[in-house]
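Case study: Circadian clock protein KaiB.
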Amino acid sequence: MSESTTMATDPNADADLAPGHYHLRLYVAGQTIKSLTAMANLKKVCEEHLAGRYEIEVIDLLKNPQLAAGDQILAVPTLVRRLPEPLKRIIGDLSNTEKVLVGLDIRAKDSP
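Here is what the predicted structure looks like once written out:
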């Protein structure tokens, strides 16, 4: 895994993103089972609920520990929603889809 892996769009393009676009940053520590599970769960949630409207940046703190300070990361894996504001954090492997949807303010298509 690279120190910073971006999926979807360019991370420097935040200013040009349309409303409703999500910039998500997932902090991990190496390729542990928890980290890999969090990455898979996040990608699944994004594909199902944010198709075409998201960007995921994966930060490996074993390679770049100094990046933890910027988003005040105290545990890994931690997901940080940078856009839309306000900034939000979810800690864990993201296996509870409902908790992730609520935590990111995403509404499921089939919810009332």
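For the exam, be able to explain this: Residues 1-17 have pLDDT under 50 and may be disordered.
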